């Protein structure tokens, strides 16, 4: 199993709305992620910078590779008002390099 990490940017003051939307994540989005081998998906927030830090364990594709699906495109549009996004509504996302791991 592989692990990937990336960062995104939340707009200031949107922590509660971000948490609210993820607490009610769409079942079809959860199914898509799991069906594509994504597990143990965690997102952390640096409240000083509003940087979101995401980590996923993979046996298949990263969520970053599912942008061509209808449900992911709808989710991006749904989240675009509270995150920094690209013109296609995808979140601006930067892959992070693994520099240390301890089991």
TrEMBL record:
HAMAP family: L_rham_rotase. It is an enzyme of class 5 (isomerase). The keyword Transit peptide does not apply. Its EC number is 5.1.3.32. This is L-rhamnose mutarotase. One of its GO terms (molecular function) is L-rhamnose mutarotase activity. Keywords: Carbohydrate metabolism, Cytoplasm, Isomerase, Rhamnose metabolism. InterPro entries: Dimeric_a/b-barrel (IPR011008), L-rhamnose_mutarotase (IPR013448), Rham/fucose_mutarotase (IPR008000).
């Amino acid at each position: 199993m592989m692990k990937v990490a990336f960062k995104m940017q939340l707009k200031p003051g949107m922590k509660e709305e971000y948490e609210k939307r993820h607490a009610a994540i769409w079942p079809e989005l959860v199914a898509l992620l799991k069906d594509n081998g994504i597990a143990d998906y965690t997102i952390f927030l640096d409240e000083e910078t509003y940087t979101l830090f995401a980590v996923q364990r993979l046996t298949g594709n990263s969520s970053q590779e599912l942008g061509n699906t209808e449900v992911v495109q709808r989710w991006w549009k749904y989240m675009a008002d509270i995150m920094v996004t690209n013109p296609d509504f995808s979140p601006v996302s930067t892959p992070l390099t693994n520099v240390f791991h301890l089991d």
